[in-house]
Each structure stands twice: as structure tokens, then as C-alpha cells.
Amino acid sequence: MSNLETAPAVHTRGGREEVSARPVHELLEPRTTPLGESTVVRRLLPNLGRRMVGAWCFVDHYGPDDIADEPGMWVPPHPHTGLQTVSWLHEGDVLHRDSVGSLQTIRARELGLMTAGRAIAHAEQSPRAHAPLLHGAQLWIALPDAHRHVSPAFEHHTDLPRITARSGLRGTVILGEVDGAASPGTTYSPLVGVDLSLTEGASVRLPLEPDFEYAVLTMSGSCHVDDVPLEPGSMLYLGCGRRELPLRASTDSGLLLLGGEPFDEKIVMWWNFIGRTGEEIVQARTDWNAGQGFGTVHGFDSAPTPAPELPEAQLKARGRVR
Ligand code: MN
After folding, report:
1. pLDDT digits (tens, 9 = 90+) for 65-86
2. What pTM value is reported for the model?
3. Cβ atoms within 10 Å of 151's Cβ, excluding its own
């Protein structure tokens, strides 16, 4: 999915100064932002007080929306650099096309993982005949400097490993490894993403990696995460230094656990691009608007989205950030 803001801000982020080395409870308030005509997304990252969780640098939660009589998702071709995107659905289906030739329908609890690397373009839409409900999350992962110029690629994984050892908890490992189960999805830094389904009355403890920082997004239901009550759309930042996470469900609940080694590198993020300098961002924008370097998304019935105007003063003032 795309950041469709018309005047996106520049974010510099990363580095250890923002990371809590010890366990904390930090509730992140979502910011609602329109995505196309029929969808509103709740943006949890970047957030005023929190820019990243490990290499996870962007979290949008949308739905559940009734799109039975509507076109649903409709995001025209747009570019990305320096990141991976994860499409994760609890309800519905999304048709993905990209400039490396992928054409793939992604369904609930299947992993659509796109590695932009040096440059990619993609488009997403609800299929013409689509499920009545759409509910999901769009997640971005910053690529470390050593890998941010890799070739663009797309992976679709339908048979992700499950966590079933605890009564009342079913988990699907999206990326990384938890409780001895490892996702086949390609990662470029130590991180984890897990989808957790808790049944009403469940009370479990999930093993964590103490060197990782973590956050939990509640997508549905009412639950307690480390004794903090959470409702749908809430995200709780948990810091580092935990060996396990207590989870209790008041109703059937669906959560996303995101974590990773704190991301040491400073990055510059604007619109759909991640770079290391303002100059790189300016170049990526120029190339995209000139139709160069990102390839072509075939088969989408609309023109590519032009990049918005740059907040040039801001980009120039920041310059090199490391
Ligand atoms: Mn996108």
C-alpha cells in the first residue's frame, strides 16, 4: 500500500536513543488518514512519540470495512525504495501487481512480502469479485544499509508455520522466529512478526527475545497485554528486556506482535521512499516522476501516482544524517 498523504512529512529515525532498554508500557494513539475513496487507515507508526520498533517503521491498520457493494481497495502504481512491505489480512483479499512481473491475490493470513531494495513499483486493489469484508495491516520494514540496494523481489507464502503448543493461543509466524517456529520469508535484520489468535478466557505467556524491542497491535477483540487492557486499533510499545509476554483475552482476540533488534542506522523517510540522505530522496522522487528506474506495473487500469511536492527546505536542512 502507499502513503497517499498529499504533503507527507520527512522523518529521520533509527538509532538507539529512542529505544527503551527496559520493559515499558507506552500506548500509541492511531492517526486516521484516508486511503483512496472508501478506506480509512489508522496509522500507528510513525507516531509522534515512536518512530520504529526494530526495523518495523510503518504500521497502518484498516477495517474491518464492509466493501460488498464497493470497489474496495484501489491503490494505483507507486514506488518504493530501501524497504520491504508486508501485506497481512485478517479478512478479505487483495490483488498485488508489481514491476518485477508479480500478479498475486493475497488472502487472509497469507504473507505478501515485497522487497523494494533499490527500486520497485506496485499497485494493489480489491479483486473485481472480492470478499465482503476487508481487514488488514500494511507494514514496512527498513532495510539495513548493507542490503538496501538489493534487487527488487516479491514472495508469497501460504503455508506459514503455526504456534499451537499453548491452550487458547494459535500463532502464525509472519517473519522471523518465535517459540521454535521460523517463517520462510526473507529478512535482512533480526526481527519478528507474529499473528496471534486468542480464544475468550485464554491466559498464556509467549517467550520473547530480551535483546529485541516489541510492540503489540490489537486488530480485534478485547485483551490484556502484560496486564494493560487493549481495544481494537490500539498499539502498545513494550521496550526491550523481556523474556516472556503475558496475554489474556476477555473475548476472542486477534493481535499482531512486532519486534526486532533496535535499528541502529539513521534513516530518512519521505512518502514511499527510505534513504540515508535528503539528496537520495530528491533523486528517487525525480526518477519516479520521470518514469525512470522503477520498472512498469502492467495491467492496472490507472496512471501511476506522481510523487507529491517536496518539502525542500526540510530535506536540505537535514542533509546527511549519519
Ligand atoms: Mn506500497
Report:
1. 999 999 999 999 999 999 999 9
2. 0.94
3. 10
